[in-house]
């Protein structure tokens, strides 16, 4: 289907997932343009490639472009308001309009898809897979939710029929995919607007597993063991695994063996870089199991990890010396913060941990308030910034100031982002972590200028 259209117009092109798909299509020689209300690192990268992006939500600009509905697919993200002027214009004029996940579904039908699902770890795991498979001559395609530092992009345009994708549970969009092989890194409560309770979330993952099994049976171009379409993290709760097992058994004749639900411990022979964060070592284990199924041995896998540079804003060092260790991370869920803090304490055990955290989404902060308080209470010093609302409005009676009152660490502050460096000059910490999925990453350069 996608080959029948030459033009793609993205509404909300500045997000990590949307920009990745836009860049990939552009490199595949399609005409790509779009709109986003904000300038982001992603829109800047796309503009530098030659993609036209408007920040003016104006119908006049669309009319000037003379976009034809016969040769154009409109792509939007659920984060875009349904009343958006541009979206309404395209709806009223009968353009073909697809959610990003729906377009990915169309594209995935043309490829042998390796999908990475899970509440955490998707982007890093995908980037690891893409880097090592490319290095080993598989030349995969990939769409990431963040910028791979090896490719300096959030996608990889390859020449093979392999496509590596993040299978995002938000809005149940991962159920639009039909992967030949899947990794499931974690299942933790999140996206309460989509999943009212834990069982709803786990059942969605079970449906995703079933789709993987069915696709794997009908298409095995990756030449994998037919009994191994799924690789699970050993950290997934037994109750979740029980729901997944029961669902798959009810809906397919496939025998769900212990080989399918990956229980084998990874061999201790695998040597990973000592500087790799603890949670990334877990991601590397799942990647290694998959790569072994494809046919790579430990030596080739280890060689790939030696040159893996990581992902932008995933345990990214901006300074690492005696005067200042400064790490920026995308962690925005209590479990992600827990893994982040654990890794830092392992790698820098003698230093006092100063965390600057920006909560992401009012709904997530309210629903997981107790979990956030527990994990944020484990750091030595804490600055809490205002909640980054993104697609949500502030109508849930939750804010950072009230959250901070329930956190029990000894030294804590509620600050506006522009006042952070004033406090840091007084405190002079030598280990600073900035974490969150909003715009907190802007702080890193300012902190370096102040403290180095």
Give the key terms.
Rossmann fold, alpha/beta, 452 residues, 16 helices, 17 strands, 6-stranded mixed β-sheet, UDP-N-acetylmuramoyl-L-alanine:D-glutamate ligase, Protein-Tyrosine Phosphatase, Chain A
Describe this structure in words.
The protein has 452 residues and is of the alpha/beta class. It has 3 domains: 2-102, Rossmann fold (3-Layer(aba) Sandwich); 111-306, 3-Layer(aba) Sandwich (UDP-N-acetylmuramoyl-L-alanine:D-glutamate ligase), CATH 3.40.1190.10; 316-451, Protein-Tyrosine Phosphatase, Chain A (Alpha-Beta Complex), CATH 3.90.190.20. Helices cover 38% and strands 18% of the residues. It has 16 helices and 17 strands. The strands form 3 sheets. Strands 8-7-9-6-10-11 form a 6-stranded mixed beta sheet, sandwiched between helices. A 6-stranded mixed beta sheet has the order 12-13-17-14-15-16. The longest helix is centred in the middle third of the chain and has 21 residues, at 198-218. The radius of gyration is 22 Å and the shape is globular.
């Amino acid at each position: 289907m996608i080959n029948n259209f030459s033009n793609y117009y993205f509404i909300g092109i500045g997000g990590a997932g949307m920009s990745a798909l836009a860049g990939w299509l552009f490199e595949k020689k399609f005409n790509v343009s779009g709109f986003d209300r904000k300038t982001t690192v992603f829109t800047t990268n796309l503009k530098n490639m030659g993609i036209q992006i408007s920040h003016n939500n104006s119908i006049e600009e669309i009319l000037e472009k003379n976009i034809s509905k016969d040769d154009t697919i409109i792509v939007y993200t659920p984060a875009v308001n349904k009343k958006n002027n541009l979206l309404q214009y395209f709806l009223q004029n009968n353009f073909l309009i697809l959610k990003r996940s729906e377009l990915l579904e169309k594209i995935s039908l043309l490829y042998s898809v390796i999908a990475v699902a899970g509440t955490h770890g998707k982007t890093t795991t995908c980037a690891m897979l893409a880097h090592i498979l490319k290095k080993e001559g598989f030349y995969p395609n990939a769409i990431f939710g963040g910028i791979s530092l090896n490719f300096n992009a959030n996608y990889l345009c390859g020449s093979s029929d392999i496509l590596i994708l993040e299978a995002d549970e938000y809005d149940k969009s991962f159920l639009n995919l039909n992967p030949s092989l899947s990794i499931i890194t974690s299942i933790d409560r999140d996206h309460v607007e989509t999943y009212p309770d834990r069982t709803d979330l786990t059942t969605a993952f079970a449906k995703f597993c079933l789709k993987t099994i069915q696709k794997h049976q009908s298409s095995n171009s990756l030449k994998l063991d037919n009994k191994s379409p799924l690789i699970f993290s050993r950290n997934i709760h037994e109750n979740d695994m029980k729901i997944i097992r029961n669902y798959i058994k009810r809906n397919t004749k496939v025998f769900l063996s212990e080989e399918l639900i990956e229980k084998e411990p990874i061999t201790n022979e695998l040597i990973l870089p000592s500087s790799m964060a603890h949670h990334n070592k877990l991601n590397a284990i799942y990647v290694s199991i998959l790569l072994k199924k494809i046919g790579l041995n430990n030596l080739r896998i280890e060689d790939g990890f030696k040159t893996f540079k990581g992902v932008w804003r995933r345990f990214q060092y901006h300074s690492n010396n005696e005067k200042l260790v400064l790490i920026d991370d995308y962690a925005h869920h209590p479990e992600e913060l827990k893994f982040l803090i654990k890794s830092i304490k392992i790698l820098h055990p003698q230093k006092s941990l100063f965390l600057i955290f920006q909560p992401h989404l009012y709904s997530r902060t309210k629903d997981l308030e107790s979990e956030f308080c527990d994990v944020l209470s484990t750091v030595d010093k804490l600055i809490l910034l205002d909640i980054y609302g993104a697609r949500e409005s502030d109508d849930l009676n939750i804010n950072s100031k009230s959250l901070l009152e329930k956190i029990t660490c000894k030294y804590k502050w509620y600050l506006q982002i522009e006042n952070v460096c004033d406090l840091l000059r007084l405190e002079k910490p030598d280990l600073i972590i900035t974490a969150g999925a909003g715009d907190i990453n802007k702080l890193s350069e300012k902190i370096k200028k102040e403290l180095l």
